[in-house]
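Morning. Coffee machine broken again, so started the prediction first thing and wrote up yesterday's gels while waiting. Chain of 169 residues, entered below exactly as on the submission form.
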Amino acid sequence: MIRSNQFIPIHNSTKIRPQLKSERLIVSYFRASDTVEAYAAITPSLTRFMAWDLPKYEQAFATVWQNWLENMAAHEEYVFVIRHTESLEFMGLCDLHRLKDEVPLLGIWIKESQHGHKYGYEAVDTLVHYAFEDLNHQRLIYPLAEENWASLKVIERLGGKVVDAVQQS
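Came back before lunch.
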């Protein structure tokens, strides 16, 4: 797999932030300009395995993404937009949460029209390498629902394993 970390400045920031590339994907920091595409791709069936529900209105989603930007500026979490390298089509989001914890959390979602093409695997692989190589983390937690067999396959393909099961109330 092709992997490069090209560093580019992000609007309104003096810090340099990465644009990660894989063979078919560009993974770059979430910006306010990504909100329309992101919101349009969030569906009830997509969020059924997530820790959050579908925002009913764009205003509710605005609160969510504005919180992401604040947390990103504080280096508490990084939310990335996944785009196809050739078409620049919005493919989904992936993120690293609780970055100040010893073991951060990793999450991802790919829009439903792009399921089945292994984009999730490719994006997670890219983000895992960034977390290990550039952020110097030794481990990551990837929470997933037992019924989410696609995410389980991604983790297994990357050499990860289920280490604990938590009962949802």
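Strands lie at 4-9, 16-21, 25-29, 78-84, 90-97, 105-110. Going to sketch it on the whiteboard this afternoon.
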